[in-house]
């Protein structure tokens, strides 16, 4: 696979510094502690040269969307102690390739997928941290469980011994209208609160994975604890399909 490397690599350290400042400011504006919001660098379509520069700039956790691409990069960077987050749509038949080492799966949106992760986690002798992906904007093209079915799925998935349901994830609407972004993120937080206030699930949820390069400020204002930032770190992916 050919990954984008035309983007000026020397910009990456500077971008990480900049986004760090911006995230910090967004937290202060929202009356929150900067240490409560964790940054995941989304490296999809970018090569190991770009990832290495991000590591050198202090990033330890990376997000990827495609299984094959993730496996290639993980193998190339095996000695770097990266914590890998799977954030894309996951097909059940690919879970086996990730089960032994994935740090967190953000995109669990069906019981069938959870059953498969449970099976593979048990086989690997570990517990896998997962998030339930909710389609908060109910856009037909998006993956994620519908908001009114999310609680049901949390309950169903909480019975598994090798899954740790750490929280919820959503992709905000494709819009620059802040109020629309905030409404979607507020909906995710309301589901999160409902889970925790009613003691649904084995443990209280801790993670709200929401906010990307264009909408992290809205997400932080609505309580995000984990932002997934690609473009603002690595540059645009315009020549790619996503
Ligand atoms: C690509 C992607 C991101 C990062 O998006 P940017 O706009 O480049 O910051 C975050 N989350 C998911 C699920 C993605 O697919």
Question: Which descriptors would you attach to this protein?
Answer:
single chain, 242 residues, alpha/beta, TIM Barrel, 9 helices, 39% helix
**Radius of gyration from the alpha-carbon trace, in angstroms:** 17 Å
Which CATH architecture would you pick? Alpha-Beta Barrel
Helical segment tally? 9
Q: How many separate domains make up the residues?
A: 1
* SS strand fraction: 15-25%
| Helix/strand structural class | alpha/beta
Distance between the termini: 15 Å
Shape: globular
Report on the architecture of this protein:
This protein is of the alpha/beta class. The chain has a single domain, classed as Alanine racemase (TIM Barrel), CATH 3.20.20.10. Helix content is 39%, strand content 16%. The chain contains nine helices and eight strands. The chain has helices at 11-29, 48-56, 67-76, 95-98, 111-124, 150-157, 178-197, 216-221, 231-234; strands spanning 38-42, 61-64, 83-86, 104-108, 128-133, 163-169, 207-209, 226-229. An eight-stranded parallel beta sheet has the order 7-6-5-4-3-2-1-8. Helix 2 links the parallel strand 1 (38-42) and strand 2. It is globular and about 45 Å long. It starts with 10 loop residues before the first helix and ends in an 8-residue tail after the last helix. The mean pLDDT is 94. Pyridoxal-5'-phosphate binds at residues 42, 44, 65, 87-88, 171, 212-214, 228-232.
């Amino acid at each position: 696979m050919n990954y984008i490397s035309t983007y000026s690599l020397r910009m990456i350290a500077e971008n990480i510094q900049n986004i760090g400042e911006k995230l910090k400011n967004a937290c202060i504006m929202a009356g929150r502690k900067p240490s409560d919001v964790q940054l995941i660098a989304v490296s999809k379509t970018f090569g190991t040269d770009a990832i290495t520069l991000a590591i050198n700039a202090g990033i330890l956790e990376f997000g990827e969307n495609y299984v094959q691409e993730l496996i290639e990069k993980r193998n190339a960077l095996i000695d770097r102690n990266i914590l890998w987050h799977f954030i894309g749509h996951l097909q059940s038949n690919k879970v086996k390739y990730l089960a032994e080492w994935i740090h967190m799966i953000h995109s669990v949106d069906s019981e069938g997928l959870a059953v498969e992760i449970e099976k593979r986690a048990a086989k690997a002798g570990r517990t896998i941290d997962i998030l339930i992906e909710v389609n908060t904007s109910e856009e037909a093209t998006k993956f994620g469980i519908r908001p009114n079915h999310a609680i049901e799925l949390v309950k169903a998935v909480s019975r598994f011994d090798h899954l740790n349901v750490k929280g919820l994830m959503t992709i905000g609407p494709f819009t620059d209208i802040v109020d629309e972004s905030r409404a979607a993120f507020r909906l995710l937080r309301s589901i999160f609160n409902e889970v925790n206030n009613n003691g649904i699930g084995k443990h209280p949820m801790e993670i709200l994975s929401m906010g990307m390069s264009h909408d992290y400020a809205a997400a932080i204002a609505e309580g995000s604890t984990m932002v997934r930032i690609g473009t603002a770190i690595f540059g645009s992916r315009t020549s790619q399909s996503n």
